[in-house]
């Protein structure tokens, strides 16, 4: 019990309890707002899609023609393109992003800077003391800078830089390995490969930044303990740190995957907008988001419900993918199921 | 909002005229020309700010039906049922016109003539190689390479696609059946690119490509354009004269809407179209209406001088007169009791 | 071994094989360790090549037209010399500011509530799941939603509507990352605070939030970066304006507003060189603005951490 000397530990005063209640109401309200927003948006899209669902039904999801004149609509190629491009992007981007996150959290660049400084014997000078940390911070900021580049600019980069660059390689791949399904079609300019490359670069900063945070927030005790029993750097990383940061890394991948599924502008410019289904990564394809971007501005009252149906499908795909991901992760032992 | 602003300025200096804002949206085709007009008009009338954003003809029409903007622009005008949905009524005003050209990438080929069968065949996917007889026969003495034809079409819904598919449907019955006239036709052949700029960059980077572009775009970017064979059999290049000749017989209805999808005069370029401003027939605010009327007067008269340099076809004189007559008929509707 | 002062100094452990204690690449564990680091460094280097490429393209093409004029003037007409995108810079600042004002408090508070939720809390589960689904929503739909609600209600395109559409895009990311950041705080700290008699609010404010601040900030910066570069939602809510947002000394938010993203979208699709160059400069300026936000955020976070 507190006497006349100060102590931190006390039961909360009445004022503090009131504030606690108020704050509780505020946070609950905010959570409800977030939840209701999702519900309202999804419901509005579903509501607008009803006329199209009634008219086209399931054939919409299995059809492959998109002909506004004949009022024949099918989005199977777009569904395929969305899934194929996003999965490839998240696999490649996830691995690359995780690598960069490990690079950042282990401070390799800083150590390297330190070594360079020590070559000149300058590593303990006053002006050199902060350079290793600053080097790591610089790299972090550079990677996060990628997130700031507008989608349109990524599209332009894809058109002006990526496509000319990969064209000779793509032609060689098609010539040599054209008999495999993966390269069976030639690159005609925009196509899956440039789109996947650009999409990977776009989701890289998300995966990197959030994974790095996850790795950085693993208690230092774990790392030190592992070193203490003789583990090498990589043994700690693989057996201790990554499992400890599993949750955060998985969260990063979920957010990045969502971004990949919904990416509009850059893919509209790079995917080639061809309504076909092909395993070849050199062939053009189409995605649901690109379809929306290309058709929505000119859509008349007849086409809007159809496009809303396509949007609803995209949201459903995101839902299914998230469920899948959650199942995989709960198998792998991450505590939270959501 | 505007009446508050009006009251505010009324309380202040009585000399300063009220700031009038007009917002438009719609087709991207006429946007550069309108942009130039707005700037010049604003310089002459500093209290009138007119803004315009390219969102596509369809979105512009939707917004004008919803009443969220003051005027729209559309390459495909507006259908009767769309006009019916607007309680204030709509007046369509053709403000400028343009042609659509077929641009190509064939190194060492400076002039290319495409007959009607040739270019419809290319779009139908029937003619697949540049050394095909249909193309070679119209171009004697030209060394056509043995390259496959890389046709590039629009991926997005657009008025440009509408106009060219309308023309192709008028020329070829097969095309009219499938894919037919549409803002986003289901092209039987060709790679798709987004926007004029997508087609242009595709054309520039792949030899053997051919695609359709707005004349202004191709001209400003100095891209080669094919001469197309019109109904009378002559091969015509796109230019101001050939475009105006094509528009001469685009009979405008009483609503000032009209097309000439397949002109017959020897001097006509085959693919040319007007583009329309969609204004309301009644505006609540008399000052807004007056500003709009002044602007349309300007656009239909002095504004036409900018048309050619930016790649548009100046309006024929009789059409200009009709536009001015039509805009003068717009009524103020309910006048706002504002400071005069 | 005896040491006698008259004898020369001997290396201790003379005659003992020291190689077992030295680091040697011949041993598999060491080799794998070095290989792992080398591989990571290589992969990182390779992954940074596209980054360098994009930034290089931006700097080279954008730097050409970057000038004081470009930053302070209104957009030019086609083929008209001069002009700039000053009003677009202001518009982006205003609309992203509105979006941040709406989404950051809501998002962080919601993240707090979700982090406090128990395992079996169905509603929290649903909200979290909804946020994940919403991250997959194409940005154009946020614009369409706000058009159907706010724009139709207010009878016109406004900066408010634009800010709201961007807020909808930012919210899911902020909610999810805030919750993650809070959950990454060691439970010991929370328990210690509660043990000292803190209410849950005090625990959050004085212990959890400050610790989780860097993580929350990462999420906020990522969300802002995305929102600043989005075009499609703005096309349906704020359109664009070739004039300044300011009139009679007031910031006019109830009108269509210019933004860097829409300007880049507009100017990159026209054939007029003067406008295309400005589009590149605008892209460069946008990226630099977000970098500045990033740095300010980091400075704030480190000051907070230092003051603790």
Explain how this protein is built.
The complex is a heterotrimer of chains A (338), B (340) and C (308). Chain A has 338 residues and is mostly helical. Helix content of chain A is 70%, strand content 1%. Chain A has 13 helices and two strands; from the N terminus they run ααββααααααααααα. In chain A, strands 1-2 form a two-stranded antiparallel ribbon. In chain A, a hairpin with a 4-residue loop joins β1 (66-67) and β2 (72-73). The longest helix of chain A has 43 residues, at 14-56. Chain A is globular. The mean pLDDT of chain A is 87. In chain B, α2 (31-44) links the parallel β1 (20-26) and β2. In chain B, the strands form two sheets. An eight-stranded mixed sheet of chain B has the order 2-1-3-11-4-8-6-7. The two termini of chain B are 17 Å apart. Chain B is elongated, with a radius of gyration of 22 Å. Chain C contains eleven helices and two strands. In chain C, a hairpin with a 2-residue loop joins β1 and β2 (250-251). Chain C is extended. The model of chain C has no long low-confidence stretch (mean pLDDT 87). At the A-C interface, α1, α3, α5, α6 and α7 of A face α1, α3, α4, α5 and α6 of C.
Short recap of the structure:
Chain A has 13 helices and two strands, in the order ααββααααααααααα. Chain A is an all-alpha fold.
Features:
heterotrimer, A: 338 residues, mainly alpha, two-stranded antiparallel ribbon, 2 strands, 70% helix, C: 308 residues, two-stranded antiparallel sheet, 11 helices
User: Strand order across the biggest sheet of chain C?
Assistant: 1-2
Helix content of chain A: over 70%
The overall pLDDT average of chain C reads: 87
Task: Report Rg of chain A.
Answer: 26 Å
The amount of beta strand of chain C, in percent, is under 5%
SSE blueprint and pairings:
The complex is a heterotrimer of chains A (338), B (340) and C (308).
Chain A: H1 14-56, H2 59-62, E1 66-67, E2 72-73, H3 76-105, H4 108-119, H5 131-145, H6 151-177, H7 192-216, H8 220-228, H9 233-244, H10 246-262, H11 265-270, H12 288-295, H13 303-332
Antiparallel strand pairs in A: 1-2
Helix pairs in contact in A: 1-13, 3-7, 3-10, 4-5, 5-7, 6-7, 7-10, 8-9, 10-13, 12-13
Chain B: H1 2-11, E1 20-26, H2 31-44, E2 48-54, H3 57-66, E3 71-74, H4 80-84, E4 90-105, E5 113-114, H5 116-124, H6 133-136, E6 150-154, H7 159-171, H8 173-177, E7 191-193, H9 195-205, E8 209-214, H10 215-220, E9 227-229, E10 235-236, H11 240-248, E11 272-280, H12 286-300, H13 317-328
Parallel strand pairs in B: 1-2, 1-3, 5-9, 6-7, 6-8
Antiparallel strand pairs in B: 3-11, 4-8, 4-11, 9-10
Chain C: H1 28-65, H2 68-72, H3 86-116, H4 122-135, H5 139-154, H6 159-183, H7 187-195, H8 200-228, H9 232-237, E1 246-247, E2 250-251, H10 260-267, H11 273-307
Antiparallel strand pairs in C: 1-2
Helix pairs in contact in C: 1-11, 3-6, 3-8, 3-10, 4-6, 5-6, 6-8, 7-8, 8-11, 10-11
């Amino acid at each position: 019990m507190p006497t006349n000397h100060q102590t931190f530990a006390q039961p909360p005063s009445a004022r503090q309890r009131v504030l606690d209640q108020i704050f509780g109401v505020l946070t609950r309200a905010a959570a409800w707002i977030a939840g209701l927003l999702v519900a309202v948006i999804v419901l509005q899209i579903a509501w607008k899609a009803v006329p199209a669902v009634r008219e086209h039904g399931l054939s919409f999801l299995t059809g492959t023609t998109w002909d506004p004149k004949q009022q024949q609509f099918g989005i199977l190629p777009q569904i395929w393109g969305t899934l194929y491009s996003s999965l490839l992007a998240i696999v490649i981007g996830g691995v690359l992003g995780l690598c960069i996150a490990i690079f950042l959290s282990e401070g390799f660049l800083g150590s390297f800077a330190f070594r360079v400084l020590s070559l000149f014997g300058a590593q303990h000078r006053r002006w050199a003391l902060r350079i290793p940390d600053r080097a790591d911070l610089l790299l972090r900021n550079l990677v996060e800078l990628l997130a700031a580049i507008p989608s349109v600019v990524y599209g332009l980069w894809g058109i002006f830089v990526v496509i000319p660059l990969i064209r000779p390689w793509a032609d060689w791949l098609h010539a040599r390995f054209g008999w495999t399904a993966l390269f069976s079609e030639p690159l005609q300019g925009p196509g899956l490969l440039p789109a996947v490359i650009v999409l990977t670069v776009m989701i890289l900063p998300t995966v990197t930044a959030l994974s790095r945070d996850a790795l950085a927030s693993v208690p230092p005790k774990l790392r030190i303990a592992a070193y203490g029993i003789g583990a090498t750097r990589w043994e700690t990383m693989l057996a201790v740190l990554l499992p400890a940061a599993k949750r955060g890394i998985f969260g990063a991948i979920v957010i990045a995957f969502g971004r990949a599924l919904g990416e509009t502008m850059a893919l509209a410019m790079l995917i080639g907008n061809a309504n076909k289904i092909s395993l070849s990564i050199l062939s053009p394809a189409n995605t649901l988001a690109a379809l929306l971007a290309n058709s929505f501005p000119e859509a008349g009252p007849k086409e809007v419900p159809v496009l809303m149906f396509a949007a609803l499908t995209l949201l459903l795909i995101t839902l299914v993918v998230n469920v899948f991901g959650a199942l995989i992760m709960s198998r792998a032992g991450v505590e939270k199921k959501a | 909002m505007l009446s508050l602003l009006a009251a505010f300025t009324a309380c202040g200096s009585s000399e300063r005229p009220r700031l009038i804002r007009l917002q438009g949206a719609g087709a991207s085709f006429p946007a550069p020309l309108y942009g130039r007009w707005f700037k010049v008009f604003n310089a002459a009338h500093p209290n009138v700010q007119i803004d315009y954003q390219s969102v596509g003809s369809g979105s512009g029409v939707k917004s004008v039906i919803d009443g969220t903007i003051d005027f729209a622009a559309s390459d495909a005008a507006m259908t009767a049922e769309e006009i019916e949905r607007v309680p204030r009524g709509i007046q369509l005003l053709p403000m400028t016109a343009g042609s659509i050209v077929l641009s190509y990438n064939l190194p060492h080929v400076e002039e290319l003539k495409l007959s009607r069968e040739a270019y419809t065949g290319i779009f139908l996917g029937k003619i697949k190689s540049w050394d095909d007889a249909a193309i070679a026969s119209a171009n004697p003495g030209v060394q056509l390479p043995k390259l496959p034809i890389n046709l590039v079409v629009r991926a997005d819904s657009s008025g440009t696609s509408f106009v060219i598919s309308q023309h192709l449907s008028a020329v070829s019955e097969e095309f009219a059946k499938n894919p037919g006239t549409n803002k986003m036709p289901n092209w039987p052949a060709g790679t798709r690119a987004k926007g004029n700029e997508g087609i242009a960059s595709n054309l520039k980077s792949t030899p053997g490509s051919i695609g359709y572009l707005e004349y202004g775009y191709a001209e400003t970017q100095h891209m080669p354009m094919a001469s197309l064979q019109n109904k009378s059999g002559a091969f015509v290049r796109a230019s101001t004269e050939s475009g105006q000749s094509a528009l001469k017989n685009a009979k405008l209805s009483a609503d000032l809407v009209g097309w000439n999808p397949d002109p017959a005069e020897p001097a006509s370029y085959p693919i040319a179209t007007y583009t329309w401003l969609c204004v309301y027939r009644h505006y609540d605010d008399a000052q807004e209406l007056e500003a709009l009327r002044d602007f349309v007067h300007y656009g239909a008269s002095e504004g036409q001088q900018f048309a050619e340099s930016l790649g548009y076809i100046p309006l024929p004189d009789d059409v200009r007169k009709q536009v001015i007559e039509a805009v003068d008929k717009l009524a103020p509707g309910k006048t706002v009791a504002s400071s005069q | 071994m005896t040491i006698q002062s008259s004898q020369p100094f001997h290396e201790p452990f003379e005659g003992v094989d020291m190689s077992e204690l030295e680091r040697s690449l011949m041993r598999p564990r060491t080799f794998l360790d070095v290989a792992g680091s080398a591989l990571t460094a290589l992969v990182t280097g390779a992954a940074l090549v596209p980054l360098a490429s994009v930034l290089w393209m931006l700097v080279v093409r954008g730097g050409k037209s970057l000038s004081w004029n470009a930053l302070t003037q209104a957009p030019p007409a086609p083929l008209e010399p001069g002009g700039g995108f000053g009003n677009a810079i202001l518009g982006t600042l205003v609309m992203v500011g509105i979006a941040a004002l709406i989404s950051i408090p809501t998002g962080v508070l919601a993240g707090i509530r979700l982090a406090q939720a128990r395992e079996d809390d169905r509603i929290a589960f649903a909200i979290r799941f909804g946020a994940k689904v919403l991250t997959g929503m194409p940005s154009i739909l946020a614009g369409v939603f706000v058009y159907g609600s706010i724009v139709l209600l207010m009878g016109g395109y406004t900066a408010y509507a634009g800010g709201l559409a961007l807020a909808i895009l930012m919210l899911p990311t902020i909610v999810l990352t805030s919750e993650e950041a809070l959950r990454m705080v060691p439970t010991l700290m929370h328990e210690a605070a509660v043990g000292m008699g803190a209410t849950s609010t005090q625990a959050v404010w004085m212990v959890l939030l400050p610790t989780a601040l860097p993580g929350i900030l990462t999420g906020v910066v990522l969300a802002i970066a995305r929102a600043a570069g989005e075009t499609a939602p703005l096309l349906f809510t704020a359109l664009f304006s070739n004039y300044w947002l300011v009139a009679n000394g007031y910031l006019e938010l109830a009108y269509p507003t210019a933004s860097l993203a829409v300007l880049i979208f507009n100017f990159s699709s026209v054939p007029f060189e003067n406008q295309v160059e400005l589009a590149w400069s605008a892209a460069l300026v946008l990226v630099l603005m977000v970098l500045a936000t990033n740095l300010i955020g980091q400075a704030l976070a480190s000051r907070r951490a230092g003051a603790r």
